[in-house]
């Protein structure tokens, strides 16, 4: 008897655990049944803190080394969108923000929302509260932050774009109301499904997230 005729069938089960903030869609699109992974205030502060200054080098001069000059174009961009409504941003402005943010300190958080809603789920409130405490900590208070909403690839572009904007706005509203963070220090932008974190798994929950980016250090930002 040939073994091939009665070979065993291997069944491989892959479980994906998302480490990003989940901008979930209604079950018809992506579901809202993932388990939230709450993050701590310290983890957020460490992720968003500006890079430490380089140590002084030996040489003839002992004058303190200056921080790198801010990029004038980035500064102008951030100043132009501070205080703007999320839906007022053009596609060009959204792409410019994404380009400016790519090398800045950032963190992806896992947050779920109520069904077909921008209301933050109760199980995700600890993460949003940790974010509020972090952004008001001495290490981060006063910086300008981008709060960017993302979805997975399920559903239409228009639906996902609008949903990502609503959910980014929801987080901003909570931070302003509960932690008295200046609204102009939080720039909200929605990217829908246009910037998947894992393009090889477009429906994975790792793509459903909100990314927070520290755009300006409080000591150098021009307000």
UniProtKB/TrEMBL annotation:
CDD domains: OmpA_C-like
InterPro entries on file: Bact_OuterMem_StrucFunc (IPR050330), OMP_bac (IPR006664), OmpA-like (IPR006665), OMPA-like_CS (IPR006690), OmpA-like_sf (IPR036737)
Domain of life: Bacteria
Domain OmpA-like: 100-218
Start and end residues of each stretch annotated as Disordered: 81-100
Record carries keyword Transmembrane helix: no
Signal peptide: 1-30
Keywords: Cell outer membrane, Membrane, Signal
A GO term from the CC aspect: cell outer membrane
Localization: Cell outer membrane
Protein name, as recorded: OmpA family protein
């Amino acid at each position: 008897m040939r073994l091939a005729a009665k070979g065993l069938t291997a069944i491989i089960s892959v479980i994906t655990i998302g480490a990003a903030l989940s901008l979930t869609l209604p079950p018809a699109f992506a579901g809202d049944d993932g388990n939230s992974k709450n993050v701590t205030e310290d983890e957020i502060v460490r992720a968003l803190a500006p890079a430490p200054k380089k140590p002084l080098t030996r040489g003839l001069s002992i004058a303190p080394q200056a921080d790198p000059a801010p990029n004038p174009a980035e500064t102008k961009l951030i100043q132009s969108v501070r205080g703007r409504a999320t839906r007022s941003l053009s596609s060009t402005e959204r792409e410019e923000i994404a380009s400016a943010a790519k090398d800045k300190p950032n963190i992806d958080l896992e947050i779920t929302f109520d069904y077909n809603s921008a209301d933050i789920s109760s199980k995700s409130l600890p993460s949003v509260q940790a974010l509020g405490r972090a952004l008001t900590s001495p290490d981060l208070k006063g910086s300008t932050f981008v709060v960017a909403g993302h979805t997975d690839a399920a559903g239409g572009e228009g639906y996902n774009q609008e949903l990502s904007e609503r959910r980014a706005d929801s987080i901003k509203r909570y931070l302003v109301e509960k932690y008295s963070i200046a609204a102009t220090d939080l720039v909200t932008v929605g990217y829908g499904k246009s910037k998947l974190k894992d393009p090889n798994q477009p429906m994975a929950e790792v793509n459903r997230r909100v990314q927070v980016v520290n755009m300006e250090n409080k000591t150098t930002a021009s307000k």
